Amino acid sequence: MKIKCIKTHLVRCDLKQPFGFSQWSYDHRCVLIVEVITDTGVSGWGECYGPAEVIQTAVEKFYSPKVIGMDPISTEMIWHHMWRASLDFARGGVMMAAMSGIDMALWDLKGKLLGLSVSELMGGRCRDTVPCYATGMYFQDMPEDVLLKVLVEEACVYSEQGFKAMKIKVGKNPEFDIKLIELMRKALPNTILAADSNHAYDLPEAINVAKALEDNDYIWFEEPLSPEHPAQFKQLQETTRVAIATGECEQTRFGFKKLLEQGGVQLVQADLAYCGGPSEALKIRTIASAQGLNMIPHVWGTQLNLAAATHFLATAYSEPGRAESKPLFLEYDRTENPLRDELYSVNVEVRNGSAIVPTGVGLGVEINENALKQFSINSTETK
Ligand code: MG
What we know:
Elements: E1 3-20, E2 25-38, E3 43-48, H1 52-67, H2 75-86, H3 94-114, H4 118-121, E4 129-135, H5 144-160, E5 165-169, H6 174-187, E6 192-196, H7 203-215, E7 220-222, H8 231-237, E8 243-246, H9 252-261, E9 267-268, H10 277-290, E10 294-295, H11 303-314, E11 330-333, H12 338-341, E12 344-346, E13 350-351, E14 354-356, E15 366-367, H13 369-375, E16 376-382
Parallel strand pairs: 4-5, 4-11, 5-6, 6-7, 7-8, 8-9, 9-10
Antiparallel strand pairs: 1-2, 1-16, 2-3, 4-14, 12-15, 13-14
The structure holds magnesium ion.
Magnesium ion binds near residues 196, 198, 248 and 298.
């Protein structure tokens, strides 16, 4: 069997309500979907995290011609074929995002060809449901005192929906952030809370915010500092007992090895649509495990990345391990995203705050071809 064709689908939609975080605002969603098709007519689907228009060119012009004709079962061989072809000039960034989408599509395809789910391909499920944390509480353009109330109300809705864990955004300004951290804890005394600054702080600011997180019993502090200053993670961790989480900007086992060797990082958050795909994510998890750390993927995008992360966590062994093991939470983005909610005919089912691990072949989610046509603004086909 051979890979006969690779298609890319650039899907896009405007949002009714723009939302912001520490760096900028979103007013639309745009994702690159990759479809790998065999000479027997079977399609595997993957997605890429990052600037979709740029990644589309990398998939279409660079990687696809190198992969066409290869055996789709040979995911390791294909990964290293792509890696060697781009190592000299693409050790990170959008080229690796392109590889990630192709690799994810190949895992979906391999599952379909062998009649197995991706979690079975990854070694078998340790659990059939994965607890989720709701990601939301993004900033909106309104006075800060009003925004504080709106964000707390949003969190209370997720709690009523059954989410026992959730993550807020911080990094607007430290004064606002500390108020939000305290109000959120008062409103939700029994909820597991985490906070994400998207690398908004310098070290003294991060130390102050970490103190507020520690005083209010938050479980992790995500991207407190710039990924360009990994040595500061260790300096920050020495001042707080709140776990430092990071990794959504990092890629490959090589990148994560360097990041984790610096110390300070307690929770590893590679994105399966960006870090090098499911193939590389498994290697990153091994590196994390060798340092006694857990990996919980960053998830942003559509059902394909959500399904990949669900299978990944279904197969996870929680470090350090005990009879009543620590839950590893799946990131479940609750912000407006029609590409997540309307593009698929079969979704990852989330019930009462937990994802049901798909048992269908491959990733176990299905694209709705009509919706794909509706959202697609540019498609390519390489044979
Ligand atoms: Mg984040």
